[in-house]
């Protein structure tokens, strides 16, 4: 019986990391599911669903050689399932002069509206002297776009930030 | 009337180029009724192309009127469709009857000038914009063996390029 593991890797970014890791997993008899790699602050990060016939100790042994290249690896046995995508129906963008609390206050406001976040990305742009913070969220909710807009408008006034709410209207054809 | 089987990728037939319709007869119109029944009886969708049911001819059915608050021309049977002009580009999310359980962001022209023929071979022309234009472009891709998977852009592209009016 196959088991799912969530494998997280963090380390200094350099070319060939993904190839080295996935080669080790492939040769160890693993099968990849959903994965997301992103460079954060110049660091390499990846999370992968990995299907494997062995147990957690086997998985650790399999990925040990990768760890010797300076990557930190974290492995969790999980109850993974494929083909369970949830489609986001709303997109929220918040941006403004960088300040503490933007993510916290935005996501609290969205949680009160029972919006379930599916994707969240934040970034810092601008310059060292005048950084701007950008928060981008995709989620699913029964609350109307207008009601989300109203809730975030209060936040926008108080923190002097910009908020945008748009519907995601997925075309199926 | 018959509900037709919808081909799903990785069926290779979805990657082939479809041929123009030359004969506008009752057999064609019978097929259009079957195509309509297939779309109406399947998962909710705003269009279907003939090759999705294994008929490799340049035929589309598009109907975005089920979506609220969207400009549309109603239910359209489009034979031998051609885009003769286009303007603007917009990224939005698409999925496909032939690609279950996956959606992604795709860039399409915002406005198109479309020419086609009706089920009797008479010429049609439309100016379409937004969601309806996107639906036609998605379906026309099927006629050339293309899926929205051939046109994916990343989530970050949407994030960075999205323009607010
Ligand atoms: Zn399609």
Characterize this entry briefly:
Chain A has helices at 17-27, 56-67, 102-112, 145-159, and strands at residues 3-12, 31-40, 43-52, 72-78, 90-97, 116-126, 131-140, 162-167, 171-172.
Secondary structure elements and pairings:
The complex is a heterodimer of chains A (173) and B (165).
Chain A: E1 3-12, H1 17-27, E2 31-40, E3 43-52, H2 56-67, E4 72-78, E5 90-97, H3 102-112, E6 116-126, E7 131-140, H4 145-159, E8 162-167, E9 171-172
Antiparallel strand pairs in A: 1-3, 1-4, 2-3, 5-7, 5-8, 6-7
Helix pairs in contact in A: 1-2, 3-4
Chain B: H1 26-41, E1 47-49, E2 59-62, E3 76-96, E4 99-117, E5 123-129, H2 131-143, E6 152-153, H3 155-161
Antiparallel strand pairs in B: 1-2, 2-3, 3-4, 4-5, 4-6
Bound molecules: zinc ion.
Q: Taking Cα atoms only, what radius of gyration of chain B do you get, to the nearest Å? A: 15 Å
CATH class of chain B: Alpha Beta
Percentage of residues assigned to helices of chain B: 10-25%
- CATH homologous superfamily of the largest domain in chain A - what is it? ACT domain
Global shape of chain B: globular
Which strand order do you get reading across the main beta sheet of chain A?
Answer: 2-3-1-4
Count of individual helical segments of chain B: 3
User: For this structure, what is the CATH homologous superfamily of chain B?
Assistant: Peptide deformylase
Uncertain runs of chain B: 159-165
Distance between the termini of chain A: 37 Å
Mean pLDDT of chain A: 94
CATH fold-level label of chain B: Peptide Deformylase
Number of domains of chain B: 1
Proportion of residues in β-strands of chain A: 35-45%
What is the β-strand count of chain B? 6
Q: Percent range for helical residues of chain A?
A: 25-40%
Q: Strand-and-helix sequence of chain A, N→C?
A: EHEEHEEHEEHEE
> Major sheet of chain A: size, sense and barrel closure?
4 strands, antiparallel
């Amino acid at each position: 019986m196959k088991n799912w593991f969530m494998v997280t890797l963090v380390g200094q970014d350099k070319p060939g990391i993904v190839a080295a890791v996935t080669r080790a997993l492939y040769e160890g008899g693993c099968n990849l599911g959903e994965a997301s790699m992103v460079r954060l602050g110049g660091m390499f990060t990846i999370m992968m669903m990995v299907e494997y016939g062995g147990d957690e100790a086997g998985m650790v042994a399999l990925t040990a050689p990768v760890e010797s290249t300076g990557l930190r690896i974290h492995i969790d046995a999980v109850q993974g399932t494929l083909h369970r995508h949830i489609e986001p129906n709303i997109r929220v963008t918040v941006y403004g002069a960088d300040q503490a609390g933007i993510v916290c206050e935005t996501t609290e406001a969205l949680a009160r509206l029972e919006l379930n976040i599916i994707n969240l990305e934040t970034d810092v742009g601008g310059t060292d002297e005048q950084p701007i913070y950008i928060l981008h969220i995709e989620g699913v909710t029964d609350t109307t776009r207008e009601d989300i807009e109203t809730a975030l408008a209060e936040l926008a006034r108080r923190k002097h930030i910009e908020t945008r709410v748009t519907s995601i209207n997925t075309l199926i054809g | 009337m018959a509900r037709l089987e919808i081909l799903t990728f990785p069926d290779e037939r979805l990657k082939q180029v479809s041929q123009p319709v030359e004969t506008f007869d009752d057999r064609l119109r019978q097929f259009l009724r079957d195509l309509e029944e297939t779309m109406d009886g399947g998962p909710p969708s705003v269009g279907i192309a003939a090759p999705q049911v294994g008929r490799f001819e340049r035929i589309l059915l598009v109907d975005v009127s089920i979506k609220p608050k969207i400009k549309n021309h109603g239910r359209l049977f489009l034979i031998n469709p051609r885009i003769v002009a286009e303007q603007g580009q917009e990224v939005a999310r698409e999925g496909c009857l032939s690609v279950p359980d996956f959606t992604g962001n795709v860039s399409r022209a915002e406005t198109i000038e479309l020419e086609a023929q009706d089920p009797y071979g008479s010429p049609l022309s439309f100016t379409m914009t937004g969601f309806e234009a996107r639906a036609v472009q998605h379906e026309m891709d099927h006629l050339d063996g293309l899926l929205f998977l051939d046109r994916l852009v990343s989530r970050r592209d949407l994030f960075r390029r999205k323009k607010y009016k």
